[in-house]
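User: C-alpha cells for this complex, please. No commentary.
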Amino acid sequence: DAKTTQPNSMESNEEEPVHLPCNHSTISGTDYIHWYRQLPSQGPEYVIHGLTSNVNNRMASLAIAEDRKSSTLILHRATLRDAAVYYCILRDPPRTSYGKLTFGQGTILTVHP
Amino acid sequence: GAVVSQHPSWVICKSGTSVKIECRSLDFQATTMFWYRQFPKQSLMLMATSNEGSKATYEQGVEKDKFLINHASLTLSTLTVTSAHPEDSSFYICSAGRTGSGNTEAFFGQGTRLTVV
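Assistant:
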C-alpha cells in the first residue's frame, strides 16, 4: 500500500477551524484517500473519504490536491470532542478488503478550550 | 449505521491463563473480520484476518498458536490469547467492512484492554 506522511501533532483552539495535512506522493490512480480518527481508549471511527473531488459530510471536509499527492482534512469548528489521533490512509478497494487498513502514526490533535 | 461490538471492554488476567475476546457485527454479516493490536502511544498493527468458515490468515511475526482466531458465524469472530504473558498486555481492536455497492467504510469495535499480571 502507498504510504502517507502526516505531522506528528497539531494544536487548535475550540471553535476554530483545523486543517490536517497528509502527503501521499506515491498514490496510485485507484487509491481512495480515507480519514479515520481514534479518540482516547476507543477504536477508530470513519471520518471521510474521497478519490479526486473534494468531499463534505457532517463531520468534516476533505480537500484533495489536483495531482492527488496531498490532501487536507478540514474540521470547520473544532470542539473538545475532536481531540483525537487522525489517520490518513490510502486504500485500493478492488485489492483491499473492507475493514483491512494500514495505519501510519497519524496526527495527534489537541484542542484547547 | 453499522456497528461492531467487542466484549469485554477490558480484562485483567494472570500470567499463563487464556483470554477470549469476542467481536460481533450487530446489523450486518461479515465474512471477513480483522484483528489489530495497539501498544501505548503506537499505531494499530494488523494481526490477522479472520475468515468465516476457514482458517485465519496471520500477519508476519504473529504466532498463530498463541493468538487463536475462530470465525464460526457471519456475525462473530473470537480472538483467544493463550498462555498470556505481561508482554501480551495491549489494546486489541477488531474491524469489519460491510460489502456492497457504495459502502467503503470500515467499522471498528470499541477495543479490549488486556492487562496480564
